[in-house]
Amino acid sequence: SDFTSPPFHKLGRLINGEHNALLLAIPLDGIGSFPPHPPPDPQEQEAAAPPPPPAEPAVPPRHRGHLHLFKKPLHRALSGLAATHGPVLLLHFGSRAVLHVTDPAVAEECLTDHDVTFANRPRLPSSCHLSNGYTTLGSSSYGPNWRNLRRIATVEVFSAHRLLRSADVRGGEVPHMARWLYLAAPAAGPSEPARADVKARAFELVLNVVARMVAGKQYYGGEGDAEAETEEAARFREMVREYFAMHGASNLQDFVLLLGLVDIGGAKRRAVKLSRERNTWAQRLIDEHRATATAAAATEARTMVGDLLKMQASEPEAYSDKVITALCLTGTDTSSSTIEWGMALLLNHPAAMAKARAEIDRFVGTGRVVEEADLPNLPYLQCIIRENLRLYPVGPLLAPHESSADCSVSVAGGGRYAVPAGTMLLVNVHAMHRDARFWGPDPESFSPERFEGGRSEGKWMLPFGMGRRRCPGEGLAVKVVGLALATLVQCFEWRRVGDEEVDMTEGSGLTMPKAVPLEALYWPRPEMVPALSGIFFIYNFFY
Fold first, then answer.
1. What Gene3D superfamilies does the annotation carry (predicted)?
2. Which of 44, 54, 165, 420 has minimal Cβ neighbours within 10 Å of its Cβ?
């Protein structure tokens, strides 16, 4: 089955995927305390506040916080805290009350029964400028602006029809990545393999896919030159990298309100500068499309910007330049991290890579490169992707939600916990994916076979979210990751750089990056050389 059918659809509902990450970090100890909660109605008279773990003893009781308990990466620290103190915890991040959840049933209740209540985002000062004043799809509070953005993203950008129409983009860029690797090492072999920066290649692939879908631009690897990078491409690369870096950095002002008056380390200044650069980039794309638009081009619009400008003519308010810019800013894709983790897992488990390659050879053969239409017929590859997302989800913590009203949530063994309005909700996907209650006695191990034959039925795997803020781009992400991994496995032999296993240490940041970027040795499979040479001819002819 594919990622939108049972059981995976059922299992994948809980993650928020609009940015698929916690836009927080680890500042100093808290100064606030959880406010008293009057029960909202008689039915909830017995609701009690969730239990907090011990606070910092050196801080007065009224102002104790829990940030002293945490170490980077934050998702690991919180998982350990939950293992010791329980799956539903009240934490104090400075002046903010935080409900930390590792129980799937409680997370589901928060995002289904209390879907509207938890549909808001907390207004974190550090993200104000990066999100254009909380106006992007991932940062906007629940209301008319968010509903308009969500409708456009779901219907006009990521619908099945739009993804089908953009299949040629992915079908061009993924083979183009294979072509790049082949041209960089046409004579490589087992005795003299080439060395690939997998992280960089995956990053460039995803940015090319996004840039072509959004604006019809290709930033990397043009004109057959594997090393070519235009000035515009360099600026775009740095803009995206800085965006991720700033979202993964420590932001004290998010939790200690008085610090919002001080620009610690120049973070606010850098955020303002980055916001201006991104807005200028997006507006330039809009102006370029508008200047070159013709009646025929509008009819045949093949980019997101072109499509939305066409609709702007009839509905100028719904499709304003500001709305288009907001959607451009949500297009930064995080699939490159998943591709990198997937290749790292396969390098550490060569038997799984060989099994996937045999499946591709059996169904696709070696006379052509695998295509997107082949993916549903490669069940073991789908199992690899699912296991990849289970162990290394792009967002180990959901982007934070915030309650807009008092509510209560049920807990195991009966009873309810009261959750006041204004409480930040953090759902720890990383902990759920590695919970032995659902995944057996060895949940930390890589085993794609656990998904074979529908054995994942009823287990809690949550890669893309549920409810109103579910990731609208999950279909695109699955297609890009699946096609990239299939192509790399089919076209090349891969080997670790040294004798030791690939370091799988998790870093801190927006997308749970590898702490050590992945590099690997490779050479073209001899039986795939004719097909790889064909990519070179076809790409130069059509692209």
1. Cytochrome P450
2. 54
